[in-house]
Amino acid sequence: MPRHRLFVPFVPLLFGVILALVPGSARAAGVCEPDGIQPSGAVYRICMPETWNGSLVLFAHGYVAFNEPVAIPEDQLVLADGTSVPGIINALGFAFATTSYATNGLAVKEGIADLVELVGIFARGHGVARRVFLVGPSEGGLITALAIERHPETFDGGVAACGPIGNFKRQTDYLGDFRVIFDHFFPNVIPGSPIDVPPDVIDGFYDLYVDRILEAVRADPGAAAQLLSVTRAPVDPQAPATVEDTILGLSWYDVFATNDATEKLGGGPYGNRMRYYLGSDRDLLLNLTVPRFDADPEALAAIESGYQTSGRLSRSLVTLHTTGDPIIPYWHEPMYRLKVLAAGAGDRHMNIRVDRYGHCTFKAGEVLLAFAVMLFRAAGQPLRGVEAVLQDPVDLQQFRELSLRYGVVPR
């Protein structure tokens, strides 16, 4: 069966959403060079504009399933109508570069290393960029935030969109809790457990288990409502279909991320030994009967050392997040803000809140605004060419209104 839209590796909403609004001549601006191979084995790509403004934009891609080939995720760089993400970046005058990372699945540490190295590769071929900016959605959002914190000598600013930047351990618990509660209300629908997914479930997810999940949810909407109430996984009350979107999306991450994360973290990160769940019709029964797990100390140590943000910023970071994100919830944003304030770096961080359902479901004006805010705060310069990019009057008006709100003057 066709892949559900939430299962497909993250589409490039961070920039791609504005491509359809770009004039045809602008889309063609720039040339992508033949792909190269980094020492880590990652594949990289560099695209240069016709007239370079001297700055480089690196794209940190989102999550790709562990069992996919290591390659640049083309579906994250091209929209359905064939327009190109590097094309729009080049049309704005920036050089563009991206990397596949050396591995798929949980690739945060590898992604940071490969992106830092890619800046050097670019410099050897095109000269040192005047400024280097990093942008990334989803897992790429966490990679962006960590890279800006840890490598201010390399990156001048970044936009981290819809990433698990507040607390990575809590993100793993959110996903694990969803599977625990799903199994309580829909037993035996997905074989295995929240800490161990059988290979045949991974192999048969699209052909067999998507239909099984949907059949179970449709047969017992009351149980589905309790599942969402206990886990606090967002849906859009005005769009009933988002109940299935949320459940299927989180089920995908359970199936495709659990084993891979356990392997790369040196143990299972999920634990719910002391958790008391609320929100069902019978909370006491729920808490007495759900299975309990302990996180492995090795995994906790690995998360703390390699995957947790600190909030210690010496460069500008703009974060963008939808409030109804069911995959990486919005609560990451206030948690990260508290870290930034505690580190005394509040003036180097700005969050742009988008009141909408969905994982990274941004509109053109919002995306461009986030990049413009980052550029203005990091380099003291406005983003030029906005009117040429935003052809839709509604999007252009939204951008202008947001620009005034966030203190950026469009040019």
SSE map:
Layout (H helix, E strand, L loop, with lengths): L12 H4 L7 H4 L3 E2 L3 E2 L5 E6 L6 E5 L25 H7 L3 E5 L8 H19 L4 E7 L1 H12 L6 E5 L6 H18 L13 H5 L1 H15 L1 H11 L10 H24 L17 H7 L7 H10 L9 E9 L7 H11 L6 E9 L6 H16 L6 H4 L3 H13 L6
Parallel strand pairs: 4-5, 4-6, 6-7, 7-8, 8-9
Antiparallel strand pairs: 1-3, 2-3, 3-5
Helix pairs in contact: 4-5, 6-9, 6-10, 8-10, 14-16
Please characterize this protein's 3D structure.
By secondary structure, the chain is of the alpha/beta class. It folds into two domains: 13-166 and 309-405, Alpha/Beta hydrolase fold, catalytic domain (Rossmann fold, 3-Layer(aba) Sandwich), CATH 3.40.50.1820; 168-303, no CATH class. The chain contains 16 helices and nine strands. It is globular.
